[in-house]
Write a structure and sequence with these properties.
The chain is α+β, with helices and mostly antiparallel strands. The chain is built from eleven helices and 15 strands. The longest helix has 20 residues.
Length: 345
C-alpha cells in the first residue's frame, strides 16, 4: 500500500507550516446540513425524508430505509454522500407508488440512530448532485487554534478562496481505495467490480489532486493561464480561453471565476500552459489515465478553487468554531488542512 502524497498547501508559502490541531474528536464537532434550492411539493409517488444521522454512512442509511420501507435500495434517492464520523442532515427519497408512508417510520428510524427531521411527498426521485451547498459547523482545538495567527489564516482563506482538493475520505482508510482503483484499472474496469463507480471516482480524484498540487506549487491555482478551462463561480458553466487578459485576471481575483483541472476521461486535452500540465500529469500516471479512458469515462472539469460562503468564526474557551457553506463537491477538510496539522492530512 502506497501512502497518499502530502499535497502542498496554498497558505504555507506565506505563513509557514501549520501548528498541530484537532477536529472531529466527537461526531458533534463536525456538523453538516445539506441545502437544497427547493422543498417537496406535497404530493407524488416519492416520500422525501430529511434525516439526521450520527456515526453512519449515507449508504448505511439507504440500506436501513430500504428495509424499513420494504423497497429495493435502488428505490432510494439521495443527492450526496455525507461523512460517517459526523452529525449530518440530508434529504432522501423513497419510491412508494400507491402506498402510504409506513406507520411508525420515525420510531423505527430512531431505533437505528436516525432522526426524522421533516418529510413530504414529491413527484420525482431525488437525484445525485442536485443540492447547491452544504452548511458546516466545525469545532477545532489545539495549538494551532490558540495561536494569534489562526484568525489571519482563516481570513486569508475567506478572502482568497481555498485550494479545492478532494478530501482524504474520498480515498478510503489509509488511501486503500486508490490501491484498489489501480488494480481494477490495470486489469480493465468492469461494472461488477465497482458497482457504485467509487473506484473510478477515486482515481479521478487522485489525478485531480495531483494536477492541483502542480498549480499550487507554481502559484497558478487561483489565476488563469493560457489554455485553461474556466468555471463561473456558483455554477458548473465552463468556457475555454486561449490567452489571459486584465479582465479575466480581475474576475479571478474577485472570485467570480476559477481555473479548473481535469476529471480525467475521454475528451479533448487542453492547450497552452494548461495542456502542458495535463501532459505532465499523464507522463506521471499513464496507467491511471489510460485505465480511465478505456473504462469510457467522459472527461469533465472541477474548479481548482472554492469560495467560502458566509463564513463565521467564533471562539470558545479552548476551541474555535467555524461556520461556512461550500458548493456541492467541496470538502471541509480542504479548509482544515490549511489551518491545522493533523495526521488525517
Amino acid at each position: 500500500m502506497n501512502p497518499l502524497p502530502d499535497w502542498p498547501r496554498a497558505l504555507e508559502s506565506r505563513f509557514g507550516p501549520r501548528a498541530p490541531g484537532q477536529y472531529r474528536q466527537a461526531p458533534e464537532d463536525f456538523f453538516v446540513d445539506e441545502q437544497l434550492d427547493f422543498t417537496p411539493e406535497g404530493e407524488g409517488e416519492h416520500l422525501w425524508l430529511r434525516l439526521e444521522k450520527r456515526g453512519l454512512t449515507t449508504l448505511e442509511v439507504v440500506k436501513s430505509l430500504a428495509r424499513l420501507c420494504e423497497v429495493a435500495p435502488r428505490a432510494i434517492g439521495y443527492s450526496g454522500m455525507k461523512d460517517k464520523i459526523a452529525v449530518t442532515r440530508q434529504w432522501l427519497s423513497v419510491h412508494l407508488p400507491g402506498r402510504p408512508s409506513p406507520q411508525g417510520l420515525d420510531e423505527a428510524l430512531a431505533a437505528q440512530g436516525i432522526r426524522l427531521v421533516e418529510q413530504g411527498r414529491h413527484p420525482r426521485k431525488l437525484k445525485r448532485g442536485v443540492h447547491r451547498t452544504n452548511r458546516f459547523r466545525l469545532r477545532v482545538s489545539g495549538e494551532a487554534v490558540e495561536s494569534e495567527a489562526f484568525a489571519r489564516h482563516w481570513e486569508a482563506l475567506c478572502r482568497e478562496g481555498v485550494a479545492n482538493y478532494f478530501g482524504p475520505q474520498r480515498f478510503g482508510a489509509q488511501g486503500r481505495n486508490l490501491d484498489k482503483a489501480r488494480a481494477v484499472l490495470q486489469k480493465g474496469w468492469r461494472k461488477r467490480d465497482d458497482r457504485q463507480g467509487m473506484l473510478l471516482s477515486t482515481a479521478r480524484a487522485f489525478l485531480f489532486n495531483e494536477f492541483l498540487s502542480a498549480r499550487v506549487s507554481d502559484a497558478s491555482w487561483h489565476s488563469p493561464v493560457p489554455g485553461d478551462t474556466l468555471m463561473l463561480d456558483g455554477t458548473q458553466s465552463v468556457f475555454d480561453i486561449d490567452g489571459v487578459d486584465e479582465t479575466l485576471t480581475a474576475r479571478a481575483e474577485a472570485l467570480d471565476l476559477h481555473p479548473t483541472g481535469p476529471l480525467w476521461g475521454v475528451g479533448e486535452g487542453a492547450l497552452g500552459r494548461a495542456g502542458a500540465l495535463e501532459q505532465a500529469l499523464y507522463v506521471r500516471e499513464p496507467a491511471l489515465c489510460d485505465g480511465l479512458s478505456r473504462a469510457g469515462v467522459k472527461k469533465s472539469h472541477r474548479a481548482l478553487r472554492m469560495r467560502v460562503i458566509e463564513p463565521v468564526l467564533t471562539r470558545e474557551a479552548d476551541a474555535a468554531v467555524l461556520e461556512f457553506s461550500l458548493a456541492r463537491g467541496g470538502f471541509a477538510t480542504a479548509i482544515l488542512r490549511e489551518l491545522i496539522d493533523h495526521p488525517d492530512f
